[in-house]
Request: fold
Amino acid sequence: MKKGASDASKRSSTTAGRTAVSDRLAQFERRQSELWRLTFFLLLVLSIVFAVVSWDTIRSLAHRFEALPIGLVLLVVLFGLYAWKRTQEISELRGLVRGIEQRDTIAPSEKQLDQLFDVISRSQQGYRDLIDSFDDILLAVSLDGQIRAANRSFADLVGAAFPQIIGHSLSEFIEEGTGDGGELAKSAMPRVLERRVWTGIVQVRLKGRNPIYYFDCVAHAMLRGNDVHGVTILARDITALRKNEARFTELFESLQEGIYIATPDDRLIDVNPALARMLGYESKEELMSRSFADLLPDEAQRRALREQMDNQPMVQGREITLTRKDGHPLVCLNTAGAVRDTSGRVVRYYGALMDITERREMERRLYQQQEFARRLIDSFPDLIFVVDTAGHYTYVSPRVKDILGYETDETQTMELGGRTHLEDRPALLALFTELVAGRQTFASLESRVRNKQGEWRRLRCHFSPLFNEIGKIDGVVVSARDVTELKRLEEQLIQSEKLAAMGQMLAGVAHELNNPLTAILGVTELLRDSEGVQENTKRQLELTHRQARRAARIVQNLLEFSRPAAPQKRAVDVNSLIERTLQLQDHSLRRNNVNVDFQPQSDLPMVIGDANQLIQVFLNLISNAEHAIREVRETGRVQIRIGHIGAHLSVTVQDDGVGISPEALPKLFDPFYTTKRPGGGTGLGLSICMSIVREHGGSIDVETLPAGGSAFTVYLPVAPPESSDVALDSGMLSAEMVSRAEDILRGRSVLVLDDEESIRMLLEEGLSAHGMRVDCAANSREALELVSHRPYDLALCDVNLSNGGQGPSGREAALQIVASSRSATKPEVVFMTGDLVEDDGSGGHIHQLQKPFRISDVLNALREALSPRPVKKS
Reply:
């Protein structure tokens, strides 16, 4: 019995021991399940809070961090796998315990117990490692504020070991930012107990330290049944985030650019003070009461801006025009973007505005100045261009097209001096080097430049250095004026001065030649017309007379060339004019073996013109034809044809010479343009011919013949019928006219005043031979003495009396003679001159006789002087 009782007692104690172990295991499983649920609950809350709090921030970042929440989910999954593994270990432990329970009679060995405690230790260490792996702070705090559990992040924060933390009050380590640690638990605990959960941001300061920390906290009540016996706290350090937010807020408020945030329905969520100031509002609140559509009323701009923001990640530098509070426009550069939710829908727009109104105004003024400068340069007659220090063109004004024929873009590949004459290029490049080196500040140079057509143009260039913003020479500015025509005019002026000097010399020579020519013409005429002269002698005298007339015509042409007289137009015969012209050119034509084919045309009408000027025209055309023939052959032929075409006579001078090139035809009648070799002509002949013919109401045509040579045709208007009774050229007087003059002049008294003895002798013998009484005087004193003794009907007075530089001129002496005449009828004065006969502009009729003259010319002049007066009886 005792033994049975003893066994029963042992079994009872064993059963009691197993019951105690089972209870302990059940308690352990419950704590394990509670820890499991708590851990997963904390992870779930942490994931949700992190996603909610950080989603907007992540979406607003320039880079996409939407993968962070996904990573957090993966972390939770990994944690679940880890926990599952630990659960397996616990299940193994539970199986071991059951095995122990089933083996009632066999007590667990020490090995089994060591294995059991090893599993428990590893499980606890795993949970510890899991909690310590969190970067956020995890705390378990009792209701009175004592710390029951904490992870490594909290230990690192307060700088204490776990034995120094567990079981100590939370207020020993941290306090509120105000310095009162007790207020932290007191303010938060009632809310946790009431709602069993609390979230918020806590501002704390570590004990003995000044820096303030900000934590985003989530607190959950720990339940035992329905009773709260503690609080678990998950705290994320957001100190850096709050500092960044503070900096952002400070930056947002202090930026000078306007910042705005708006909704898709144009409602302003936030603006900074700078934007309010830019738009003229008193405060940002006043501005936010307006919609974005009120600020940007242009629907087209607003729609285009929204389309860009919807389709692009960022819209940069788009110019928009806002409306200020006072209604004035505000031009801004807008940099904007859109914030989207997880579905991609735009939830708000944000942007930065830079006021560029003043900049646009400055740009407008600058554009006006640049446009003014451009138009000013374009209006310059000069070519403006800029070259860099390497001699490349950096700017060329559009005048290059007019001056050199190049387009502006064609000059981009050119270099300075590339089109300059080889003789002028060294001086140009040397001057450019001097300017670039800074040794000269201004210089001028003339150079010859070939234009696009290949012609040489003379440019007068002015150079000045171009400085950059630091005062260094960056290039050279050149203004070039085309002085080709000016140089040509200067050459014409020089040539004109030469011609004027030559004319003065020729006038003097002609005047001196006219006196002996007059004597030769008069004497040969007197001898030729004398009775008893042999026929052979008459022929010789006629030859001498004709050659003297030829010399007189040459002198006359020289006078007209040196100082053209006013035209004396009268009815002239073109046939006679050409014959006289051929007489003047006869010697040169014969010497150069040039034959002239001219057949005078009968029954041709007269033309009204100046015989000497028309002879000059024909003489120049015949001379040019002679030169054209000599260019290509030793002998040639000139054909002269006269035709009657309507109201004009045509005179064609045709040669078989070198001809005229097509490019020379348009410029053939330009002054100083010549196709002859250097020294072969001045280029004035054809231009003078054109001027004379146009003055006569005609024209000149020229053509190049297919077989070679050229043809010049002169068209002159036909004289009207009423001009048939106009006197012919005085050089072609008929014998009948001379006879009528003798009848009128017979018995008249004539006073001759001339300082040339030969002229006096000629007039005395020639006029006496025609029944006139002639007295001669060498100077005005002798003439006045003769007038004081007897009256005279006529006075022949030389205009250019030398008198040794003293005494009256010929015209003054004539006035004295008329005034001193004793008769009631004053003598008629006929002036003799070796110069060209000109009208003095007085409006009265002055009788003039040009030297050299023949006796018949003198008779005709005296007859004209006396024709309005009755014959005086002696």
